[in-house]
Amino acid sequence: MSDMQRTPRQEMIEIIARIAEVDGDHPTIVPGLSIHRHSSSAKPNCAAYKPSLAIIVQGAKRVLLGGELFVYGASDYLLTSIDLPVFSQISLASADEPYLSMNFQIDTTKIPALLDRLGEQPAASPASSRGMTVNTLTADLEDAALRLLRLLDRHAEMPILLPLIEQEILYRLLVGPHGARLRQMTTAESQPHQIGRAVAWLKEHYSRPLRIDDLASRVSMSVSSLHHHFKAITAMSPLQYQKQLRLQEARRLMLEERLDAGDAGHQVGYDSQSQFSREYARHFGEPPMRDIGRVRRSLVDLLAGEREMLSEG
């Protein structure tokens, strides 16, 4: 099929499927861009989402933020404007039509300069208080995302075109239905910006005991205002956010650094091994070592399948 006959989405499917030949999450030579392929749905998995634009070109996905569920597919995009610990699950995928997606990290430090160039804009309230939103993919945003993917085959053009495409993507998001949230996240002393500072502190000091009044003081907010706006943006209280950070890091330590459950729990701030095990099982559905054993077996099976596919190719 020629380029003239293909729709933008068909071309995006072709590029991602060709470059991501095996299942998994694949970083690319384009800074901030990763592509993803999975041939089956899977058990929900914990993840740490950074400010980013995620576009599914084939398949569908569920993302659980606190107690709120976001569902999006090939006609939508997921915009994340602040670091958020979530559960994600690929809900539509098959060997014949694998889940294919792209994720482009948003460099929030580039937004203020773009806002200066845009000048004064009519005041608008955010379409949602959440730091994560789903919206219908527009033709303009889809076109910019396609041109970003094309850079994977046009290495020589990347130094010139990447900054222009990145700026256009930021512009499309800023003037879109959730642009007000991005604006507020980068506006000094706005409440969303203050919550961003609180999140940054929690990420850096997640293993420390958390005193809410100290955190509120650090970001120049009252305790009640911190609670209200933190939950509005993250769908969690600061304590719940810290707990998710701790449990996700403990899981990483057990999987990647092969720490036992006791050492991992202690390293992320738990003094009680029994409390760590209870909260881990409540969060991940299984006690630590049973969960880690299952994940390791799944990884072994996945690697074996990839080696088989590569040898056949």
Automatic annotation (TrEMBL):
GO terms for molecular function: DNA-binding transcription factor activity; sequence-specific DNA binding. This is Transcriptional regulator, AraC family. Residues 196-294 form the HTH araC/xylS-type domain. InterPro entries: Homeodomain-like_sf, HTH_AraC, Tscrpt_reg_HTH_AraC_N. Keywords: Transcription, Transcription regulation. SUPFAM superfamilies: Homeodomain-like (SSF46689).
